[in-house]
Write a structure and sequence with these properties.
The chain is built from 13 helices and 14 strands. The two termini are 24 Å apart. It has two domains: 14-164, Rossmann fold (3-Layer(aba) Sandwich), CATH 3.40.50.1980; 194-361, Rossmann fold. The radius of gyration is 21 Å and the shape is globular. By secondary structure, the protein is α/β, with parallel strands linked by helices. The strands form four sheets. The protein has a five-stranded parallel sheet, with helices on both faces. Strands 10-8-12-13-14 form a five-stranded mixed sheet, with helices on both faces.
Length: 370
């Protein structure tokens, strides 16, 4: 964190604000072409993960944000505390509706934005968009969730255009694309058999089994790295629930669970910022010892892994993609180093470093590092 100390002092000492993006147009992920307002933007976001995305682009993302949902669960308590330490005004920013709740035009207008950023498939109706237009608020749609391979890069480029940091956005997108291309080339050279994968989202959130991606969402990562998502065979949407009987019948070759601090109260998989390797390992062992899960061959063979859910649905998902590649095809992707990728992101992009243990494997498994 020391290398960020001087930039931080410059931000707070000199009153640095977001450079004006200037009047212009952009096309959002819904294919809507919108005209940007003149001057520095005042942005309302409907997902806390856009705060993390903006922290890849700006020394102080709170200079651009006037309202956010205060959905701390989406970034994790530990990460939120580090952002508050660095940007004390974050808790004081206005509150707007989350993409996980019903949209409130009143809350959005109350924070007086010039731009309102919404998640694809959520947010205002077309009629409400017209109301925002009449109030002088430009609506822009992004997508980190429904089709991440198609839309995360473009969404980051849009954010870069909004805050006048297109070059920085382009550099990060280039990093993501280079890492993905390396994976594609390794598979194109000799297309391997696709091992079956059970990806359990929010493992241990409730006694019922089991949250899983279907078509889209995280499932596209599994396809990208040469796996077969068993959830996609029966779930028509981006996420749904699989029965334990179905999971046991398919007996996948690889098991990946996600979790985070939001599962502390349920006894689920807990890892991420503020948690060390031992705590994360113990949490994964508890997760795989649950009734039914313990009988999967993937558990018995040491091909069971835990992943911080906060690496998903954000531009940081490139680290998750590399981890999945290592876990699904450990021999083919032995030279892929997710830890090194995260180090580059922390050093060259993130204004607040992502620390803690964000992935873990059973002790006999490859942990994703080199």
């Amino acid at each position: 964190m020391a290398r960020w100390l001087l930039p931080a002092l410059a931000v707070f000492g000199c009153g640095v604000s977001v450079e004006p993006a200037g009047a212009g147009t952009l096309t959002d992920v819904r294919g809507r072409t919108v005209t940007l307002p003149d001057g520095a933007p005042r942005i309302a976001i409907d997902d806390g993960r856009y705060l993390l995305a903006l922290s890849l682009l700006l020394e102080d993302p709170t200079t651009a944000i006037v309202g956010w949902p205060h959905d701390v669960n989406r970034i994790g308590d530990g990460t939120y505390e580090r952002y508050v330490d660095r940007f004390p005004r974050l808790p004081e920013l206005g509150r707007v509706s989350s993409s996980a709740t019903a949209f409130s035009i009143e809350q959005t207008l109350a924070v007086d934005p010039t731009v309102a950023v919404f998640s694809l498939g959520r947010g205002p109706t077309d009629e409400q968009i017209e109301q925002l237009d009449r109030a002088g608020v430009v609506s822009v749609f992004l997508d980190f969730y429904m089709d991440p391979l198609a839309n995360v890069d473009r969404s980051l480029e849009i954010l870069g255009q909004l805050v006048g940091e297109t070059a920085r956005a382009d550099r990060f997108v280039a990093l993501r694309q280079e890492r993905r291309s390396r994976i594609r080339r390794a598979l194109d050279d000799d297309a391997p058999e696709r091992p079956s994968v059970f990806f359990e989202a929010h493992a241990g959130m409730s006694p019922e089994c089991c949250n899983s991606p279907g078509k889209g969402n995280v499932g596209v990562y599994i396809d990208l790295v040469g796996g077969h998502n068993i959830g996609a065979d029966v779930l028509p949407g981006p996420i749904g629930r699989l029965s334990l009987e179905y999971v046991l019948e398919r007996d996948p070759a690889v098991y990946v669970a996600t979790g985070g601090p939001h599962l502390v109260g349920t006894g689920g998989l807990v890892l991420g910022t503020g948690y060390g390797p031992q705590a994360a390992t113990e949490a994964l062992i508890r997760a795989v010892e649950r009734p039914g899960i313990e009988h999967l061959d993937a558990v018995g063979l040491g091909r069971a892994h835990g992943l911080s859910h906060h690496l998903l649905n954000s531009p940081l998902d490139i680290v998750a993609i590399e981890l999945l590649a290592r876990w699904i095809h450990p021999d083919r992707f032995a030279d892929v180093d997710p830890a090194a990728t995260l180090d580059v992101i922390n050093r060259d992009f993130l204004v607040v470093e992502l620390d803690g243990t964000h992935w873990v494997s059973l002790p006999s498994s490859d942990d994703g590092s080199s």
